[in-house]
């Protein structure tokens, strides 16, 4: 089998080589390339591949269709909305993701954004550097706040656990409540969650139901003075609607890690200029620990697929 990695997995070369070694020792070919989003470059690099590995780089249908030997796409990411799944399905190509690798990393950054917003960390840091004081910028504690988790999968649940440990009341919303969820999460309708939460933290996948979920209509259902955290997928939020609600004072602040497009962003993007907004360039998933975990997971995916027991299957 020829295995082609089309972008960096964000780990040291020795870690990548150690993960690939069992496959190359078994006689398979492994080739790694730097990221290039040009479909023609991708086709030139992966045209004879049996397996394509990517992280969050778009993989279009034209690339999938142009690879006659392609049998498996291994996505080093949790979301797979950047892969043309219909093209893969039409070609009979299996697709796996790296579910679970970034649970802790995303949950921790989500909590960090909450704390930074509530305690006005960016503003008081700037004050301190300019020889000023905290006057007018004394914040509030996370303890005692109601945090609404939209999408209580592994990441949402870990975020809920951390908020619970800080003394928060935790509300949850997901489409299917099994009944074995932890007692510290109270599951309610989306409307109830929006109306009651001091902080709404988004951890849902991007699909037809969630696209634009936090738009003008649902923002109007939120508490005045609430905060929004988005560490899910950018299009879950209507950026202009959120920016307007922040700028007119209806919402108190936002922590945004994901956008409609991958950074670097257009510097005119509305959420780069809205009031009390902390922005990070899609970094929530990325810690030294999560990157190594991701590397191990995706190479394990290939070994299990080759053994006829595919793991983390999304298609």
What does this structure look like?
With 315 residues, the protein is α/β, with parallel strands linked by helices. It is 35% helix and 15% strand. The chain contains eleven helices and twelve strands. It has a seven-stranded parallel sheet with strand order 8-7-6-9-10-11-12, sandwiched between helices. The two termini are 20 Å apart. The mean pLDDT is 97.
Q: Main beta sheet, described?
A: 7 strands, parallel
Q: Give the low-pLDDT segments.
A: none
Helical coverage, percent range = 25-40%
Series of secondary-structure elements, N-terminal to C-terminal: EHEHEHEHEHHEHEEHEHEHEEH
- Estimated structural class: alpha/beta
* Number of DSSP strand runs: 12
Q: Spatial order of the strands in the main sheet?
A: 8-7-6-9-10-11-12
What is the CA-atom radius of gyration, in angstroms?
21 Å
Please state the average pLDDT score.
Answer: 97
**First CA to last CA: what distance?**
20 Å
Strand content: 5-15%
Counting DSSP H or I runs of 4 or more residues, the number of helices is 11
State the shape. elongated
């Amino acid at each position: 089998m020829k295995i082609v990695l089309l972008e960096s997995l964000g780990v040291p070369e020795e870690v990548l080589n150690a993960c690939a070694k069992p496959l190359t020792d078994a006689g398979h070919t492994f080739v790694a390339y730097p990221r290039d989003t040009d479909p023609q470059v991708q086709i030139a690099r992966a045209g004879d591949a049996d397996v394509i590995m990517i992280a969050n780089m778009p993989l279009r249908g034209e690339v999938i269709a142009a690879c006659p030997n392609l049998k498996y796409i291994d996505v080093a990411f949790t979301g797979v909305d950047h892969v043309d799944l219909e093209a893969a399905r039409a070609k009979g190509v299996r697709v796996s993701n790296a579910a679970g690798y970034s649970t802790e990393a995303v949950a921790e950054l989500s909590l960090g954004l909450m704390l930074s917003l509530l305690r006005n960390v960016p503003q008081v840091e700037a004050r301190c550097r300019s020889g000023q004081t905290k006057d007018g910028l004394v914040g509030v504690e996370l303890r005692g706040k109601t945090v609404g988790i939209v999408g209580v999968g592994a990441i949402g649940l870990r975020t809920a656990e951390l908020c619970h440990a800080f003394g928060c009341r935790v509300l949850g919303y997901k489409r299917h409540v099994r009944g074995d969820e932890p007692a510290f999460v109270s599951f309610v309708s989306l409307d109830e969650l929006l109306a009651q939460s001091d902080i709404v933290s988004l951890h849902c996948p991007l699909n037809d139901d969630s696209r634009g979920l936090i738009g003008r209509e649902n923002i109007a259902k939120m508490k005045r003075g609430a905060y929004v955290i988005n560490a899910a997928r950018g299009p879950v939020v209507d950026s202009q609607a959120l920016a307007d609600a922040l700028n007119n004072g209806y919402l108190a602040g936002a922590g945004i890690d994901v956008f409609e497009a991958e950074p670097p962003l257009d510097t005119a993007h509305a959420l780069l200029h809205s009031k009390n907004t902390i922005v990070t360039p899609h970094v929530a998933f990325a810690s030294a620990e999560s990157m190594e975990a991701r590397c191990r997971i995706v190479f394990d995916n290939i070994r299990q697929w080759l053994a006829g027991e595919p793991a983390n299957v999304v298609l």
